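Project standup — Tuesday

K.O.: blocked on the structure for the chain from last sprint. Re-posting the sequence here as requested.
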Amino acid sequence: MGLDDDAREYHRSDPPGKIEISTTKPTNTQRDLSLAYSPGVAAPCRDIDADEGRAYEYTAKGNMVGVVSNGTAVLGLGDIGAQASKPVMEGKGVLFKRFADIDVFDIELDETDVDAFCQSVEAMEPTFGGINLEDIAGPECFEIEQRLRESMDIPVFHDDQHGTAIISGAGLLNAVDVLDKDISEMEITFSGAGASAIATAKFYVELGADPDNITMCDSSGIITEQRAANDDVNEYKKEFARDLPEGDLADAMDGADMFVGLSVGGIVSSDMVASMAEDPIVFAMANPEPEIGYEEARAARDDTVVMATGRSDYPNQVNNVLGFPFLFRGALDVRATSITENMKMAAAEALAELARKDVPDAVVKAYGDQPLQYGPEYVIPKPVDPRVLFEVAPAVAEAAMEEGVARTEIDTDAYSEKLEARLGKSREMMRVVLNKAKNTDQRIALAEGTDEKMVRAAAQIQEQGIGDPVLLGNSDEIEGIAADLGLDFTPEIVDPRVDDTEAYADRLYELRQRKGVTRSEATELVKRDTNYLGSAMVETGDADALLTGLTHHYPSALRPPLEVIGTAEDADYAAGVYMLTFKNRVVFVADATVNQDPSEEVLEEITKHTAELARSFNVEPRAALLSYSNFGSVENEGTAKPRDAAASLRADPDADFPVDGEMQADTAVVEDILTDTYEFSELDEPANVLVFPNLEAGNIAYKLLQRLGGAEAIGPMLVGMDKPVHVMQRGDEVKDIVNLAGVAAVDAQGE
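H.V.: unblocked you, prediction finished:
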């Protein structure tokens, strides 16, 4: 099947459409229903009657946007009417939910009269926290938005006008930075004079462009003062009429610094791009085909061309999804009465700034592992970059508060963390640890310092104030990688080729001389293997923590720190723990990486150290030692180990947390089974520390939960070591390194 048939099947498969309504509160019992509806619902109704502002407190209004259209100008389809536009409006709702966790009702009004349309939308104000106008033909769209903005006390935003303006405006800010141009002196040519083009031109003026340097063309050619005087253009186009001779688009592009295409595909030739000024900016944004193709525009010039299109298969995609979800998110969360020019400007500036930062590995992978680094081919962030939410929305919220259109004030720092939590429980949990780690001077040795991911992670560790990263390895390679990546930081490097490492060799020899290591071998190990070098640095106190394992097999990476640093005084064994996060639950899984067949004593140690780790995430531990039996239902050596370990822990005064076992996994995590069937259990709530009977079970379980259960996994975190050491998995991403650095820094604070 082709794309059209696939899309039809996608939309009509049961249930039809793309959105649904779901409940957010329990509705399982008679009491639940009496709270949700009659008679309990009367109480919030009375409160709102006394103070309408409490609708934001008691209802979904504060997270609800109405996507409203009459289907008169659907992108690529034209005037198809209200009913036919519904799949597009549902799709808009999907984007709001997917990218900013905003709920949407799509409203298709079978109405083209401006007065009647506005009256219909105004009547729905009690339902929504904001209105997103969509796919309404011009020039009526200008009047509709203006009238609704004046008459309604909630944000009204016509995305077709302003979305492209904001996203391309962010690209413009970065393009002039990359090319060292001055916006105020640039000659800018527009192809297209519809709602989007006019709004974009106005926004560029807000960014610093000189309106006298903007030449706008419609299908009849350059919009001149002569045409305006003859009433050849509508009142909205007249604003950009210039005192120029009549001409066509080719004339307008000759010598221009920038081309902005918001018209139709294929109308710009290579010769027209060749006629532009030095190092031109070409934003050809017609969809689905741009005014000129990416390769064609680049091939037309020998100098630098910053090229943007509306397509995802080329660099610098101008995609409105980078704007409207996050603009509304910030506006809703301060209960804004409108969306102002300053709020739009804040969104564009935040997007521009984000494009200058290191790009997460997950985003790079989503685009086929192509390089994404600030420069001519990356001046606009990618739509799937999760950081857009907590970069743009706080900027918008802050602008709203500064301008006085916010009904409520928020702490933008705390707000950023709240937004981050919307992206998943793992981010919320990691923020607890990263905040604890911040503004410390813990020195974190990164053993594989010449790996690009380690260099990028070091930059982020330093930037976020998590600790002081120390990269181990060839200094020339490390500095070259940092320069190639354009990272604005000077890393601290320990290079065993040139730096004095004798003290580390001495200590390694002292520790291992009766384990078969000679003095010369100790020197060679420290010079050749940064795992031994990093372990010795931590053991001697020259570093506070060690991260390794990114390019090594887990056992070979773990061996040096075990030999040099060893386990803690109260531990004979180390263990690997994963934190698994679900939508509303967090569990710690141990042991998943180290001990193949732990004894009763090892299970006790693992449980105590994992509970301690949970507390570093502000999680009060409730431990379950797992088996395939419940509380003695099967008697053998395998089931006895977790049962006896649980009993020993309950008798241990240092184990100040509830623990029980042996028990089956569902008994441990399902409250009804735990409290009804086994009411005698020491656990009165589901367990959040799950200790598995052997390595096979732990490793298999965490991977199944991650891959099939939708859990996000953080780890493995190594517990039981004398000093903080974490051995990563090969292929971990930069964010995993940064997360483990945060855990290590918090561990080191307690040393």
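K.O.: great, moving the ticket to review. The two ends are 62 Å apart (CA to CA). The longest helix spans residues 159-179.
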